[in-house]
């Protein structure tokens, strides 16, 4: 029993050894605490101030970017994405600045973020290219929803412009989904960009046809087509003395929405009027001459 009592006594002495037993010990601890607060207090307060002020500035910049993009009628998806990316990037900068104020080495954090960004960029380079192309198309608007365009080897009416793809609907009601990078990397023809379009037609007549009569008939057809605009003035001219025909070029202006209707109607009307007027539309032909009993 004596040994057990001795053990308990020793343990009690070890525990009380860490408790201040005099006023000098208390003063020493208080002095150390003051030194610690003096050394780190201002740094902690500065870091907190940097974080709070930086976060407020990041929110202000985010809201400013959002308002600026809303004034230019940018797609809401782009507005949300760009404003979020702006806020996150600024907030990351603020956090790094606050950690640096505490004396923490932030070089390694920056290196890690850079390496992670590079890896993500390489892995998503195709998607990022499509996103960048979609972003630029929404900003600069080479076309809009409802326009009839030709690009990337296809044509159709624009149904939707998304972040990564653009959707077209063809005349036979097929849906074509085109990556934005492919679409923006090629020539884009926007047939709906202007309010008017010119209808170009080539009409061939026989060499024995009276050209003045042909011109009068064409002028009469144009004057009776209500969808043809008078300004700019229609043009009828002899364009070519071809192998089998004399080719007239007919150019008239119409509203963009009436383009195909005018083209189809005038093609049919020209054929019917030429038949009624006896104006021949020649087929490709070859003249055969017999010389000295031989075919040549």
- Helix and strand composition category: alpha+beta
Shape: rod-shaped
Overall pLDDT score: 81
Radius of gyration: 41 Å
What is the architecture of the largest domain at the second tier of CATH?
Answer: Orthogonal Bundle
Low confidence ranges: 1-18
Total tally of structural domains: 3
Reading off the top of the CATH hierarchy, the class of the largest domain is best stated as: Mainly Alpha
β-strand amount: 15-25%
> Biggest sheet, open or closed, and with what strands and sense?
5 strands, antiparallel
Binned, the helix content reads 40-55%
End-to-end distance: 142 Å
Count the strands? 11
User: Which oligomeric form is depicted?
Assistant: single chain
Number of helices: 8
Provide an overview of this structure:
With 296 residues, the protein is an alpha+beta fold. It folds into 3 domains: 20-123, Helix Hairpins (Orthogonal Bundle); 142-190, SH3 type barrels, CATH 2.30.30; 196-277, Alpha-Beta Plaits, CATH 3.30.70.100. Helix content is 54%, strand content 19%. It has 8 helices and 11 strands. The protein has helices at 2-16, 23-71, 76-101, 107-123, 125-140, 180-184, 211-224, 259-277; strands at residues 148-151, 154-161, 165-169, 175-179, 189-190, 196-205, 228-229, 235-241, 246-255, 290-291, 294-295. A 5-stranded antiparallel β-sheet has the order 4-3-2-1-5. Helix 2 packs antiparallel against helix 3 and helix 7 (211-224) crosses helix 8 (259-277). The longest helix is centred in the N-terminal third of the chain and has 49 residues, at 23-71. The protein is rod-shaped, with a radius of gyration of 41 Å.
